[in-house]
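Researcher: Quick test of sequence recovery. Tokens follow.
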């Protein structure tokens, strides 16, 4: 279990990467190194100054850049809380609770297929880097409605082969990720994050292929530490468990899908 911190960060850079998503780069406000974070873990972000947003927002760790000591968060504007967060000016202080949850299997070796849909691509970038640095063969399969909705493709290309699927065919192969030709290849493990219907479809495909599969759930989370029971998921081996504490990453064999 990794140690958890409540820590102030400074927003050092931000940019819009799709019509709905912004990339925020944060550095420890008082200097020092970033806490140790694992691919697939998340942070709880305080939305300061909002009169209507009282709970922290859970956001996946997109990337940990040890060279410039920054944590990357890919934020989709889904409501007042996330809009307020991305509207912070560069130089603003942002308070985080981190790192939270359990991440993906990053054991080196074999051939991995990392599948992401929409903003669900976020945790796969850091996972791909960690795997690639350990000598693992990495293939990304990124899905979106259109080419305009694809985020950080050039970053993914640094750490593995990138395949793309868009629903309108504007980039890559036309259709859903489960229809992409790369799904006909053999992999040792599939790791996935995205909308629930997409993850369930990937899980079905993985079972057909006989390939182990992990998914990162995005259940509604309030506390991030397993106290509020807001994010409970029924599992095959432990009954109802808190996704924020036992997940967010689960092997599909544990899920009643």
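Model:
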């Amino acid at each position: 279990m990794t140690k958890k911190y409540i820590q102030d960060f400074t927003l050092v850079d931000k940019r819009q990467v799709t019509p709905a998503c912004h990339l925020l780069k944060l550095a420890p406000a008082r200097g020092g190194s970033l806490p140790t974070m694992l691919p697939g873990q998340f942070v709880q972000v305080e939305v300061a100054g909002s009169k209507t947003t009282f709970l922290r927002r859970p956001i996946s760790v997109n990337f940990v850049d040890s060279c410039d000591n920054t944590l990357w968060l890919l934020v989709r504007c889904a409501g007042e809380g996330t809009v307020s967060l991305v509207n912070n000016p560069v130089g603003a202080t942002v308070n985080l609770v981190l790192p939270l949850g359990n991440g993906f299997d990053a054991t080196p070796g074999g051939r991995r297929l990392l599948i992401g849909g929409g903003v669900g691509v976020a945790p796969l970038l850091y996972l791909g880097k960690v795997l690639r640095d350990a000598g693992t063969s990495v293939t990304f399969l990124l899905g979106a409605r259109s080419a305009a909705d694809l985020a950080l493709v050039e970053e993914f290309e640094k750490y593995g082969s990138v395949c793309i699927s868009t629903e309108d065919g504007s980039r890559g192969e036309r259709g859903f990720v489960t229809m992409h030709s790369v799904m006909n290849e053999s992999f040792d493990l599939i790791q996935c994050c995205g909308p629930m219907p997409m993850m369930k479809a990937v899980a079905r495909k993985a079972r057909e292929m006989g390939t182990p599969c992990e998914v990162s759930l995005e259940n509604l989370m309030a506390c991030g530490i397993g106290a509020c029971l807001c994010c409970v998921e029924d599992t095959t081996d432990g009954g109802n468990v808190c996704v924020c504490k036992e997940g967010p990453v689960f092997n599909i064999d544990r899920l009643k899908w």
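The first strand starts at residue 5 and ends at 16.
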